[in-house]
Structure formats: structure tokens, C-alpha cells
């Protein structure tokens, strides 16, 4: 059984016991435990069920590479599925539940899949469930989905907070083992700004566990001394519990810092995502031990050899009382020695190498441990935990020589450097035949914009396995007490000649249930590319992303194909190194802070006065001001009629306002707009159209010439940033020698449209020094001066067809001006109106709206806006495009007005079918509606639309479709429904 | 070819699956083929398949510089829908959807087409009107779509937050027949069926040149030697420009990185595909339980098959806003693909200035869902010289300004 040892455990604090709950049972552990070590201490060997066959699963590793020990953790808003027990530090009150079983971990119905395992090989679902067709959707798929998946679904909103953090450094060192510490020290001493990140809580990596002596002192002491030296340097920052999750182009690295995951106290941010720009990245990410592939290597109690000694040394727990070590290299002998010295039984070391180990063999012999050379495990015995192993010849087919009773198997198939970060941005690997590992190739490193390498590796990550070699790679010559190791012998299958029965039980990917036989099947069926094999078998696609399985699977594949391992190649390494929380990626940008809400200076007034809000771009605009007892629709109609009869105010502050200034500003605007803007007189306004290079209308608005070299360009609300970017795009990339400056001043000004027959009266009541008379302030001009106490710019422009002024004041005065207008206009019947009233007012006048009449496929000519296209200009953006044959075709749909015969409103988006069908069997169409409203002014439905040959078909009745399949009849009319001669706006 | 069935699997199970034959042969190229398709992605393989199936043209080679299905066919988020606004798009995507519905049976390979339904969220008034327009257009195109209210939507997608403080959900465009399929299986199924018809799927064979005589194609130079052909189909997505240059013509294509990510697998929680275009993110749940998430493209041109992290951030933020539970999940893997974009973001299926050469490219961010329809139409074009499905996707439309622009209906044209 697994248990807590009386002594040892360098990371646990036995004076601080903690309690946690596993599947409702109370367990005890110590501060410093990981969840995995604490489970071992409580003799909990089985921790979950596998993905496909629901096989019993136990912990196999001691770090980030763990594929099995995943739990539903926490409760409510702090619940999280798939938490890895080997990296989760224990805290008091932690609750976990095991995953992927029903009704319980011990008795799982899904385990029946094991009985059918021989009919459920890799890719079985591609060959089955084909007939009958409806069964996939209704029977097979729901069943597969239900039995797949791992953790439970979080039900409540996240109770934690997250934050982002920016960091810049000359050198980022990833990994706080001896290689990383040495590298950081060297760079720090050279005066570089250094950041060192360690993913776990502790420093030192393997060296401290293995008890190596460096220059006569213990690795532990060496690590503490080096850490102290680093912490004393002002130019060096050291962070633990912070994993470099991904390397991106241009030296961008993400650091995933876990702040409260190890604490009972969850106040404060849970994770902090470091967005690091590093001049150079050194990955000292170490190496991961590989499992061996033998039958039953997935039974709980079979662990990586190094993990077994980690549990003893770091946390003072023994996985079993009797541990059989099985290996193809010398390193696993250390496990035997440590176990023996801890008073545990090691009945045998099974070494696949006929020649056995180097000098370390003498050490184990001294301890009385039996070494079986050239042997292998034929099969592990046990169901929910190991009860023994059957030994055979490695060179044979698995005939059992003897059985050894044991309750733990410690296996080692060699080591694989952690090359993920090296590979994220394209670093290439070499296959090292002697060590049987992929090592980073420094001559093919990821390169930056200067063509130089921006990532390098050090220590075990480079493929150096002894402490002396690791530190030498980091630039330190040291002496150690290590003995020379005999060469490893690659063993990809155990025994070498294992038959199909054994291969079906030799696991490669524990979580996804991929076995040696599956990879061989993939190869046999022609899924020869490593990517095909991965995708066909799901090898390496589990939550550990193949940290344990990929190289072993690759080797099996290359053997099956009779190709060399480097020729088969690896799959692509993608970020993150281990999964990172979506919460951390989101950071603080959630709920109200998801995207900034832009508020106009009058926002609070609107909110207090019944505003029904509508998101428009980043803004919130008032759709309508709803009074007590009114529906939104009532409010809109009331607002419209009041503008037509009295006066209304619209918060138009969101309209884009871009200043364009400079000696070449006129020339620039002539290129940007279809109209001529350079000849606009100072003090005058002109409605302008903008098109993209393809000739399509992209924005419109009133342009005002403020001074000889200065224009103010109004854009649509949604268009301000886009058009400003568009201007800068042309100025910076194409016309970089033109002397033009632009500034987006949208938020610097509050703007209020005052519209209605009593608009002039209202403004005059505020007083000031401006002449607002018909003669003194004609249509399409602007004045600047005092309006009452306000510093105002007033534009006499109209989007409603009424006498209308748009008053612009500094943003800080907006709220006061708005209030002043409401107060002064009380006896004139002033009312605010919202965006919907604005839309209908303009539709009654036949004014187009960008986004309604246009959709990115409409040219000005379609909307009968030829008058706004200058004939005198040689060029403007979109001109040549508009001359293309299809653009100039008389068959293009053109803008018309539409009146339903019965007065009803044509549905939004409705089309006009034409007789017949096209060659693809679709109904022919001849037009569609673009804006459709109930007009309270005209007391009927009105609409605008685009109709083939429309302007030539005035008076014709056409039919529009409805969603229910019926049709609505409408007559083609002039799009100006109200005040055709413009008498109301020109008073 | 031995057919796949539950009985075949049962029989093989008894002998440790040693009797399965290769899904596709691994032949050396012949001297000459009637048709060579360059590119063994979904579109290229489907083109070859329908050439054989519909027109009896089986002396065909599909040549691929890497491994089949290794480009965007194996990198996308597997969404299938046909609720497009413009007629030519709706026609070809709906053809594809109809073929997907029977593809597993047609190919005798389970591509796991799962018509679980697809909803595009409307989160502004503007989007509401846009999708209502799509419903109306779809009605006349014979594509069944409907408008659903926020309440109906919440029933279909219980994990959604319809009261988001920033962009409340105002309704959605729902296509019940839409869904997902297993992307790799589509390529593998077509490859197996092509191979079975006697076609040669030749992997690890890169085209180095295109040979023409008198304005007509006569063959290609490859890393496995010269191969002659009467007709040549270029179906290589982002690398079409490179291939076209070898043949002496140019195409209006740009390549940008599109990224996607998956969460760790969880138990089933969302049985429908949801796209939220205002906030820029979409999500479905795979059969394995992973939440499959996609977003927008990088704004700069790129060939590296990886993208910038800020797009991942934007996408995840959008998803957390739309589905708050996502915040407690973890990102397992992110990846990128290179998508080939045309001027109007619609594909090109066309004859070219070189007699006998045809192109099929420019599927941008929406190619996977089109695979069967694209192959069907391309085969018709190559066999007969014209196809009503490809007519409007002619490469010369850019000269005339005859765009097929879908961005009208959705900010993201996936």
C-alpha cells in the first residue's frame, strides 16, 4: 500500500497538517504536499478513469506531464474540471471529485467498454455507425458524447478575478532548476535585466531530489546559495508558480502565474498573465522521463521511476511497499537506492540491457538488490492496482520466466528534453541516436526580425543529463559526485517480440487509451504521416498533449513503417505548455469591462430620463426616451411628431469628428471623398461620400471647412475609428509625402441636434453673440461664438428635413448645454429624441443611412447620389472601380421609395421575387427593401429599397416576401415622402 | 476495397485487426493522367472523387507536397452551414450541405456529420436587420433558416448569457440543418474512395513547374519526376498564387493567419454551434468534449501557420462574455492556419488564361463547409467546361466588379 513515511519529505511541513475532501471522504495531508502526494499518503491509488475504456487510472508522474490524475475541483463559482493533482498544491479545505465515471470511481458502468476493447481499436468509429443514417445524430453520437468528455461542466459564473501584467527584460530564463539558476546568474552578473520563471513552488529541479553534490556541497545548498545571489541582484527578478506557457514571434512570451490556487484564502486575483517581451529567451525546461511500453503499464501503481523517488524525497510518501524497477538506463537505479535507503523493499531491478548498468550497479548490489539483466516485463498483474509482474526475456516474445510480487512498478525508458518552448516559434530538432532523444539544433533556432536566434536552450533541455554536463552547458565547470552512466539502450516495446495480445495491453497514451497496437494499426492502414497517426489514434491529443506518449508512439510508428525516427518527425508543438485558464486569458476584460463603453457627456441625463439603450459601435445611444405607460414604439412615434411639430434634441455626440489639417489637406480630402472638398468655402458645410478602392460606399457625413487649411470631417457613429484608420492608412502607406495631419476629436466635443420648426426660437432663447437668422446663418454654413454661456460651433445642417442646427460644444459643457436646452425649451414643447426617431425622420425625407441603404456592395450611383460625385476631379478612391462594367451596368438595382398598398410595414430584409428560377434552382429576385418603418407623420408604412430598373418603374406595384411565405404588395414611389421641396428645412 | 461496417470490425476484432487493408494505396506516379489535381486537401480530393463518380474520369492523380488533409482541412473548426446571403454562395454551400448529409454512406467512411444546428447571434439592431434579411433571402434560395428569439435561443443553448451587460443577445439566425463533421475523416474518406476508383493519391510530391505548349497545359514537373496531363486542377489554397505563377498568370489572393483553440474536454454542455459575430467568436463542442473556439484573422499577411496572441485574447474574451462558464475552463491548445482571401472574400472556381488549367481557391475562412459542393462543382467545370455552381465564382469577376460579398451579412464570413 502507499503510505506516508516516518521520515523524509523535503517539501512538506509536518507541523502543519491540512484536511481535504476526496469524493466526500476526509483525507489528511501536510502543507507542502501536492494533491497527488497527499492522495498517496492516504493510500488512494486509483484516481480516475480513462477516456475511452474507462480503465482504472493511477498517478504516473510527479509534475506537469501527468496524464491521469485529473479532478473536478472546488465548488460553485470556484469549480474547475480537469485539475492536475501533481501540480495542485494542497491547502486546507480543498475538495476534489474524481472524473469520468458513473455511478462511482470504484464501480463504473462505462468500464464495460473494456470487454469490447478488442472491437474498439483506433478509429473504430470511422468504420462503424455509418448506417442507418439518422442513427448517427440521434443514437450513436449522443452516446459517444456522453461517455467521452472528462470533467464536469462549470455551472456558475466565475467567482475569481484575473489580471494581466506587462514585463520587459533582456533575458528571460525559463525554469528554476540548476541550469536555469546558473544561466540567470551568468546573465545577471553580465548586467542584463533578467527574469527567471519557475512553474512550481520550488527551485532546484531534479538535482536536489537526486542528492547530487556540486563542488563538495549538496545540490540543495548550491541551489539556496545561487537563489540568494540572484535575489541580491537588483537587475534580476525571480518568480515561482509562474509558467512560461508559450513563445510567440518577436520575443513575446506568456507567463502564467498562479497566485491563489495553493491557498485557502482566495481573495485577490487568482491568476496573473504576464505579457513578456524578452530580448532573448533561455529555456532551461529540463527533461521528462519516458514510460516503457509493456502489457499492463497503465495499471495503478505503475509510475515513472523518477516520480517514485520524487514522492519519497520531496513529500515523504511511498507509492508501494515492494517496488520493481524496470529500466533501459542507469538513472532508474537511483530510485532503487532511494527506496531501499528509505526502508522499502525492492525485489528486483529489471534491466532490459543485457550488459546492465555502469558503476551504479555495484551500489545497488551492495544494498542487496537483485538485478535481472536483459529481462523485461511480460505483463503487470492486478486490476485496480499492481499485485505483481511477470518477467520475461527482452529479446523474446514474452514467455514468463518468473513472477515477482510487488505493489509498485517504477519504469524508465529514458528522458526527452522539454523542447516545447524552443519549438513554438519554429526551432528545429535533431535526433540523437545514442541518447534516443530529440535535441534542439542550435543552428536552426527560432529567429527574430534581425535573423538572429531569439531562443536558446540550456541543461537537460539541451539534452544533457548529468549535473556536471548540465552546469557545463550553462557555463559553469563543477565537480560532482556522480558516477559515469552506461549507455541507454532504446526500448520501444517490451518484450521486443511482443505479440498482438500483449501489444493490445501496452499503453502509449494513458488518458486517451492509445496502445501500441493502435499505432501499428494506423501504420498498417496507411495513416503513415505522424500527423495522420496522431489524428487517427488520438495519440498525444489528451490534456497532457503527449508529454509522455509522443516519442514512444513515434518510435512505434517508425518501426512499423521501417523508417527512421527523424524521418517520421514530430507533430507540431503548440502553446500552451500546459493548459492555462481562460479566465487568465480574459483578464479583467469581462462584464462591464469586457469592452469599454463609450458614454457621451449627457449619458447620465438620458439614463435618468427613460433611455432605452442601444449599442452602436463602442457607444451606448438612446434608442428612445420611454415615458411612464408608453411602449418603446409609442415613444418613438411621439418623439417624431414632436420634431415635426415643435422641436426635439438629439444627442449626436457620437458622430465621428476628424480634423484634417495641413497644406495638402484639400488635395487629400478630394481623393478621399467623391465630392470636391478643396473648393469648399471657409465657413461652409458639404455632405460628402467616401468609397473604398472597390468603389463601394463606406461612409458619409458633413464636411466643414473651419479655416483655410483645416477641415472637420463628420463620420457615422460606427465609422469614426475606422475612417480615421483609413485616412492614416493612406497617409502613412501611400501618400506619405503629403503634408496632412489628422486628429480624431470625436470625444472632445458634445454635439446636439436641435430640430423642428421651433429650433431657431429655442436657440435664440439661450442668447449669445451669434446671428441665427435665416439670412445671417444660411443652410449648409456654420458659425462659431457664444450660445448663452457656451462656447459653441453651430452647423446649420439637417438630417430630419426640419429647420435644424447641430450645436457642438467642448465635451465638458455638453451636459450643461443639454440641460439648458431642455429648460429653455419647456414652453416650446422641446423633447429629446432617440436614434430610432432619427432613423424614421431621415427615412421620411429619403435620406440614405450607411449600413441600411449600403451594405458594402452599394456604389453611390445605386442610390442616385451622382450629384455628390464631382465631375471635375481626375481621381478619387473608388473612381476606377466604379467604371468597371458591372458597376456601370444599367441592370444594377437602384434606390426607390416604396409604399405598401394596405399601409402595413414591409418586413425588414424582405426581397422582391422575379419570375422563374436561376440555373441553381433559386428563385430569381429583382430587388429588396433597405429601410422600412411605420411613419407616424404619414400614418402608414414607408420604405426605401433597391429595385432593378427601379427609377424607371414609378407607380408599378411589386411584391415583397414575408417569413411566413405570404407576400406584401408595395408601389414604387419617389423616396422623398415628406416635404419634397425642402421648404421646412430652409425656413 | 473492403467495405467498412460493424460486421467487418467484429470480424477483424477476432484476429487483432491484422486484416485491414490500406485506406489508400501509396503509388508511384504514372507517366500520364487525364487529369492531375494538385493539392490533396478536402477540396482537391472531392474534386477528384466527383470527376470519377459523376463523369467516369478515373485516370486521375491527386498530388500533394505534404500529407493529405494536412492544410486547412485539418486545421479548421469544422463548422458546416449554408445560410449565406448571396445567391451564388447559398447555392454552392447548400449543395455542399446536402452532400454532407449523405457523405458517410456515400464514401462508406463515417465523417461524423452532425446536424446539431447552428445559430448566429444578433447583438445589435443592425445585426438583427442583417440576419432577418438573410432569412428572407434564404427563403427564396430554398435554404431553410429561421429567426429565433432570445428566449428560444436560451432553450437551445442553456449555457449562453443572453443578458450580457455589453451586448445583449437580441435573437439569432438559426439553421437547423447546420452542424459539424470530423474534418480529418472528410479528407480520409475521399482519399480512400478516390484510391478505390483507381486514382493515384501521391503524397510527398511537390510541383516544381507547370508545362504548357501553345497556351495549353501538358503536364507538371514534380519532385517525383515529370507527369503529363490533359487537364490540371490547382486546388492548393494559400499556395495557389505560387502555382499560378508557374503557369504564367496571377490571382487576386492574399494569405493571412486564422487561429483557433480548444479547451480541455468536459462532459456535453452545448449541442449546437454558436457564432457571435459582433464580439468575434464562435464555439461548438466536439464529440470528444473539447470546446472548439475560433475568432478573427490577423490583419497582416503571413505564411507561418501561427498567429499573434492578441487575437486569442480577443476571442476568449468574447466567449467568456457570451458563455460565462468558459472562464473556468482551460485552453488546451491553440493553432493557426493560413487562409487564402480574395478581394470579395468569396472563392474562385474558374477556368484560367491557360487552356486546360482550372483553379479552385480563395475559400478564406469558410472552406471546410464547402468541400463536397466545391468538389462537385469543380468536377463539373473540369469535365464539361462550365457549371452553374461555379459560374459566378469566375476569376475574371474582379475585372468586372462583380463581387460576391458575404461580409454584408456577418462581420466575420466563416
SSE layout:
The complex is a heterodimer of chains A (987) and B (414).
Chain A lengths: L2 E2 L8 E10 L2 E7 L3 H7 L4 E4 L6 E3 L11 E4 L6 E5 L9 E5 L25 H4 L5 H15 L14 E13 L3 H12 L4 E4 L7 H6 L2 E2 L2 E2 H13 L4 E4 L2 E7 L3 E7 L12 E13 L3 E3 L12 E3 H11 L1 E2 L3 E6 L5 H9 L3 E7 L8 H7 L4 E3 L1 E7 L6 E6 L8 E4 L2 E5 L2 E3 L2 H5 L4 E4 L4 E4 L14 E3 L9 H7 L26 H4 L3 E3 L4 E2 H9 L5 H8 L12 H12 L3 H4 L11 E2 H5 L16 H6 L2 E6 L2 E7 L6 H14 L2 E4 L4 E6 L3 H8 L12 E7 L5 E11 L2 E6 L4 H15 L6 E4 L4 E7 L3 H8 L15 E6 L2 E6 L8 E7 H14 L6 E2 L2 H10 L34 H4 L10 E8 L10 E7 L5 E13 L4 E9 L8 E5 L5 E7 L14
Parallel strand pairs in A: 2-8, 9-10, 9-16, 10-13, 16-30, 18-26, 20-21, 20-26, 21-22, 36-46
Antiparallel strand pairs in A: 1-19, 2-3, 4-5, 6-7, 6-8, 11-12, 14-15, 15-16, 17-27, 23-24, 24-25, 28-29, 31-32, 34-35, 36-42, 37-40, 37-41, 38-39, 39-40, 42-45, 43-44, 44-45, 47-50, 47-52, 48-49, 49-50, 51-52
Helix pairs in contact in A: 4-6, 7-8, 8-9, 13-14, 13-15, 19-24
Chain B lengths: L5 H9 L17 E7 L3 H14 L4 E4 L15 E2 L6 H15 L1 H5 L10 E5 L2 H17 L4 E3 L1 H7 L14 E5 L3 E2 L2 H14 L3 E3 L4 E7 L2 E7 L2 E10 L5 H8 L6 E10 L9 E4 L4 E5 L5 E11 L7 H14 L7 E12 L6 E4 L5 E5 L9 H14 L12 H4 L14
Parallel strand pairs in B: 1-2, 1-11, 2-8, 4-13, 11-18
Antiparallel strand pairs in B: 3-7, 4-6, 5-6, 9-10, 10-11, 12-15, 12-16, 13-14, 14-15, 17-18
Helix pairs in contact in B: 2-7, 2-10, 3-10
Approximate helicity band of chain B: 25-40%
CATH C-level name of the largest domain in chain B? Alpha Beta
Order of helices and strands of chain B: HEHEEHHEHEHEEHEEEEHEEEEHEEEHH
Which overall shape of chain B is indicated by the principal axes computed on the Cα atoms? globular
Beta-strand fraction estimate of chain A: 25-35%
> What would you call the structural class of chain B?
alpha/beta
Helix content of chain A: 10-25%
Distance between the termini of chain B: 36 Å
Structural class of chain A: alpha+beta
- By CATH, the architecture of the domain at 595-874 in chain A is named 2-Layer Sandwich
What's the architecture of the largest domain in chain B in CATH terms?
Answer: 3-Layer(bba) Sandwich
Strand content of chain B: 25-35%
C-alpha termini separation of chain A: 97 Å
Number of beta-strand segments of chain B: 18
Amino acid at each position: 500500500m502507499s503510505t506516508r513515511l516516518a521520515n523524509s519529505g523535503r517539501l512538506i511541513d509536518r507541523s502543519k497538517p491540512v484536511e481535504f475532501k476526496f469524493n466526500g471522504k476526509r483525507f489528511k495531508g501536510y502543507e507542502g504536499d501536492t494533491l497527488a502526494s497527499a492522495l498517496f499518503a492516504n493510500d488512494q491509488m486509483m484516481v480516475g478513469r480513462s477516456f475511452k475504456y474507462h480503465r482504472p487510472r493511477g498517478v504516473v508522474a510527479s509534475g506537469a506531464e501527468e496524464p491521469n490524475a485529473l479532478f473536478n475541483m472546488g465548488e460553485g463559482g470556484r469549480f474547475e474540471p480537469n485539475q492536475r493533482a501533481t501540480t495542485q498544491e494542497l491547502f486546507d479545505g480543498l475538495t476534489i471529485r474524481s472524473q469520468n465515471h458513473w455511478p462511482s470511481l470504484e464501480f463504473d458502468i462505462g468500464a464495460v467498454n473494456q470487454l469490447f476493447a478488442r472491437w474498439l481499436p483506433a478509429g473504430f468509429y470511422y468504420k462503424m455507425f455509418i448506417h442507418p443514417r439518422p442513427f448517427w445524430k440521434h443514437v450513436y453520437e449522443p452516446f459517444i458524447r456522453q461517455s467521452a468528455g472528462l470533467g464536469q461542466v462549470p455551472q456558475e459564473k466565475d467567482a475569481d478575478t484575473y489580471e494581466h501584467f506587462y514585463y520587459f527584460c533582456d533575458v528571460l530564463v525559463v525554469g528554476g532548476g540548476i541550469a536555469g539558476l546558473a544561466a540567470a546568474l551568468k546573465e545577471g552578473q553580465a548586467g542584463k535585466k533578467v527574469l527567471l520563471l519557475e512553474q512550481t513552488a520550488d527551485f532546484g529541479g531534479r538535482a536536489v531530489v537526486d542528492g547530487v553534490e556540486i563542488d563538495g556541497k549538496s545540490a540543495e545548498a548550491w541551489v539556496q546559495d545561487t537563489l540568494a545571489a540572484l535575489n541580491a541582484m537588483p537587475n534580476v527578478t525571480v518568480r515561482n508558480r509562474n509558467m512560461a506557457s508559450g513563445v510567440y514571434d518577436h520575443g513575446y512570451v506568456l507567463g502564467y502565474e498562479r497566485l491563489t490556487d495553493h491557498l485557502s484564502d482566495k481573495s485577490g486575483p487568482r491568476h496573473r498573465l504576464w505579457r513578456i517581451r524578452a530580448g532573448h529567451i533561455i529555456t532551461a525546461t529540463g527533461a521528462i522521463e519516458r514510460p516503457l511500453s509493456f502489457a499492463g503499464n497503465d495499471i495503478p501503481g505503475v509510475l515513472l521511476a523518477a516520480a517514485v523517488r520524487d514522492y519519497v524525497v520531496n513529500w515523504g510518501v511511498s507509492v508501494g511497499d515492494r517496488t520493481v524497477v524496470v529500466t533501459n538506463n542507469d538513472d532508474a537505479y537511483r530510485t532503487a537506492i532511494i527506496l531501499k535507503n528509505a526502508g522499502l523493499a525492492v525485489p528486483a531491478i529489471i534491466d532490459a540491457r543485457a550488459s546492465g548498468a555502469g558503476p551504479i550497479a555495484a551500489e545497488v548490489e551492495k544494498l542487496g538488490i537483485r538485478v535481472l539483466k536483459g529481462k523485461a516485463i511480460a505483463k503487470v498483474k492486478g486490476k485496480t492496482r499492481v499485485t505483481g509482474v511477470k518477467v520475461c526475456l527482452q529479446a523474446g516474445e514474452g514467455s514468463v520466466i518468473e513472477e515477482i510480487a510487488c505493489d509498485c512498478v517504477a519504469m524508465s525508458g529514458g528522458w526527452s528534453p522539454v523542447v516545447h518552448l524552443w519549438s513554438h516559434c519554429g526551432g528545429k530538432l535533431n535526433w540523437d541516436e545514442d541518447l534516443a532523444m530529440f535535441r534542439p539544433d542550435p543552428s536552426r533556432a527560432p529567429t527574430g526580425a534581425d535573423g538572429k536566434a531569439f531562443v536558446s536552450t540550456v541543461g537537460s533541455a539541451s539534452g544533457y543529463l548529468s549535473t556536471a554536463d548540465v552546469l557545463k552547458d550553462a557555463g559553469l565547470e563543477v565537480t560532482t559526485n556522480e558516477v559515469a552512466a552506461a549507455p541507454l539502450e532504446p526500448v520501444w516495446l517490451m518484450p521486443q517480440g511482443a505479440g498482438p495480445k500483449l501489444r493490445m495491453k501496452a499503453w502509449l497514451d494513458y488518458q486517451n487509451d492509445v496502445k501500441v497496437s493502435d499505432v501499428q494499426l494506423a501504420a498498417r492502414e496507411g495513416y503513415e504521416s505522424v500527423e495522420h497517426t496522431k489524428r487517427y489514434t488520438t495519440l498525444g491529443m489528451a490534456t497532457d498533449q503527449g508529454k509522455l506518449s509522443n516519442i514512444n508512439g513515434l518510435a512505434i510508428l517508425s518501426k512499423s513503417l521501417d523508417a527512421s525516427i527523424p524521418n517520421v518527425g514530430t507533430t507540431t508543438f503548440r502553446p500552451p505548455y500546459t493548459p492555462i485558464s481562460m479566465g487568465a486569458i480574459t483578464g479583467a476584460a469581462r462584464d462591464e469591462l469586457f469592452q469599454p463603453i463609450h458614454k457621451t457627456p449627457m449619458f447620465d441625463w438620458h439614463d435618468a430620463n427613460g433611455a432605452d439603450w442601444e449599442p452602436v459601435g463602442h457607444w451606448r445611444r438612446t434608442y428612445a426616451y420611454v415615458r411612464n405607460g408608453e411602449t418603446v414604439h409609442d415613444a418613438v412615434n411621439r418623439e417624431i411628431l414632436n420634431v415635426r411639430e415643435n422641436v426635439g434634441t438629439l444627442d449626436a455626440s457620437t458622430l465621428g469628428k476628424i480634423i484634417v489639417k495641413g497644406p495638402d489637406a484639400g488635395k487629400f480630402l478630394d481623393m478621399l471623398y467623391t465630392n470636391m472638398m478643396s473648393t469648399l468655402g471657409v465657413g461652409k458645410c458639404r455632405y460628402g461620400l467616401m468609397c473604398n478602392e472597390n468603389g463601394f460606399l463606406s461612409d458619409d457625413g458633413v464636411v466643414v471647412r473651419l479655416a483655410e487649411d483645416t477641415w472637420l470631417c463628420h463620420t457615422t457613429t460606427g465609422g469614426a475609428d475606422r475612417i480615421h484608420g483609413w485616412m492614416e492608412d493612406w497617409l502613412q502607406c501611400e501618400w506619405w509625402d503629403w503634408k496632412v495631419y489628422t486628429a480624431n476629436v470625436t470625444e472632445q466635443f458634445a454635439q446636439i441636434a436641435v430640430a423642428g420648426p421651433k429650433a431657431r426660437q429655442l436657440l435664440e432663447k439661450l442668447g449669445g453673440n451669434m446671428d441665427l437668422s435665416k439670412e445671417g446663418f444660411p443652410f449648409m454654413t456654420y458659425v462659431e461664438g457664444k450660445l448663452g454661456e457656451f462656447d459653441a460651433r453651430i452647423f446649420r445642417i439637417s438630417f430630419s428635413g426640419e429647420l435644424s442646427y447641430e450645436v457642438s460644444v467642448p465635451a465638458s459643457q455638453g451636459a450643461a448645454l443639454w440641460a439648458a436646452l431642455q429648460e429653455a425649451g419647456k414652453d416650446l414643447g422641446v423633447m429629446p429624441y432617440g436614434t430610432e426617431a432619427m432613423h424614421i425622420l431621415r427615412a421620411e425625407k429619403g435620406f440614405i443611412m450607411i449600413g441600411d441603404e449600403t451594405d458594402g456592395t452599394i456604389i453611390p450611383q445605386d442610390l442616385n447620389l451622382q450629384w455628390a460625385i464631382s465631375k471635375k476631379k481626375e481621381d478619387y478612391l473608388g473612381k476606377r472601380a466604379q467604371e468597371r462594367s458591372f458597376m456601370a451596368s444599367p441592370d444594377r438595382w437602384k434606390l426607390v421609395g416604396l409604399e405598401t398598398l394596405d399601409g402595413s410595414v414591409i418586413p425588414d430584409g424582405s426581397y422582391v421575387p422575379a419570375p422563374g428560377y436561376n440555373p441553381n434552382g433559386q428563385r430569381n429576385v429583382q430587388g429588396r427593401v433597405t429601410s422600412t418603418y411605420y411613419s407616424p407623420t404619414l400614418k402608414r408604412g414607408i420604405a426605401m429599397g433597391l429595385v432593378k430598373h427601379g427609377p424607371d418603374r414609378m407607380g408599378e406595384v411589386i411584391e415583397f416576401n414575408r417569413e411566413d411565405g405570404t407576400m406584401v404588395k408595395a408601389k414604387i414611389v419617389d423616396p422623398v415622402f415628406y416635404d419634397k421641396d425642402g421648404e421646412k428645412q430652409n425656413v | 476495397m473492403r467495405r467498412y461496417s460493424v460486421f467487418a470490425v467484429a470480424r477483424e476484432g477476432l484476429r487483432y485487426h491484422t486484416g485491414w487493408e490500406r485506406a489508400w494505396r501509396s503509388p508511384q506516379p504514372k507517366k500520364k493522367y487525364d487529369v492531375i489535381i494538385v493539392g490533396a486537401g478536402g477540396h482537391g480530393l472531392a474534386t477528384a472523387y466527383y470527376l470519377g463518380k459523376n463523369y467516369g474520369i478515373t485516370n486521375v492523380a491527386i498530388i500533394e507536397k505534404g500529407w493529405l488533409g494536412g492544410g486547412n482541412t485539418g486545421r479548421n473548426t469544422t463548422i458546416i452551414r449554408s445560410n449565406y446571403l448571396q445567391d451564388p454562395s447559398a447555392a454552392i454551400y447548400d449543395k455542399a450541405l446536402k452532400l454532407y448529409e449523405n457523405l458517410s454512406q456515400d464514401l462508406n467512411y463515417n465523417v461524423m456529420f452532425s446536424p446539431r444546428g447552428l445559430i448566429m447571434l444578433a447583438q445589435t439592431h443592425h445585426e438583427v436587420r442583417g440576419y432577418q434579411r438573410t432569412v428572407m433571402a434564404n427563403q427564396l434560395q430554398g435554404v431553410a433558416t429561421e429567426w429565433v428569439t432570445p428566449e428560444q435561443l436560451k432553450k437551445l443553448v442553456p449555457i449562453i448569457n443572453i443578458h450580457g451587460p455589453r451586448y445583449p443577445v437580441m435573437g439569432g439566425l438559426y439553421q437547423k440543418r447546420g452542424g459539424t463533421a470530423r474534418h480529418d475523416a472528410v479528407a480520409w474518406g475521399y482519399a480512400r474512395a478516390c484510391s478505390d476508383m483507381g486514382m493515384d493519391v501521391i503524397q510527398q510530391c511537390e510541383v516544381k513547374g507547370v508545362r504548357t505548349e501553345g497556351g495549353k497545359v501538358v503536364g507538371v514537373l514534380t519532385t517525383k519526376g515529370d507527369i503529363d496531363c490533359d487537364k490540371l486542377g490547382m486546388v492548393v489554397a494559400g499556395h495557389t498564387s505560387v502555382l499560378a505563377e508557374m503557369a504564367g498568370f496571377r490571382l487576386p489572393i492574399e494569405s493571412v493567419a486564422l487561429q483557433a483553440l480548444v479547451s480541455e474536454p468536459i462532459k456535453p454542455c452545448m449541442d449546437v454551434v454558436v457564432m457571435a459575430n459582433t464580439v468575434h467568436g464562435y464555439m461548438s463542442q466536439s464529440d470528444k468534449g473539447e470546446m472548439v473556439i475560433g475568432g478573427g484573422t490577423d490583419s497582416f499577411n503571413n505564411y507561418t501557420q501561427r498567429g499573434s496572441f492578441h487575437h486569442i485574447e480577443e476571442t476568449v474574451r468574447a466567449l467568456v462574455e457570451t458563455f460565462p462558464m468558459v472562464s473556468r475552463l482551460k485552453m488546451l491548445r491553440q493553432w493557426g492556419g493560413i487562409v487564402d482571401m480574395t478581394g470579395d472574400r468569396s472563392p474562385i472556381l474558374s477556368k484560367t488564361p491557360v487552356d486546360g488549367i482550372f483553379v479552385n481557391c480563395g475559400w478564406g475562412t469558410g472552406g471546410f463547409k464547402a468541400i463536397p459542393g466545391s468538389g462537385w462543382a469543380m468536377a463539373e467545370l473540369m469535365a464539361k467546361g462550365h457549371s452553374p455552381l461555379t459560374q459566378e465564382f469566375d476569376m475574371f469577376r474582379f475585372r468586372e466588379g462583380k463581387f460576391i460579398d458575404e461580409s454584408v451579412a456577418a462581420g466575420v464570413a466563416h
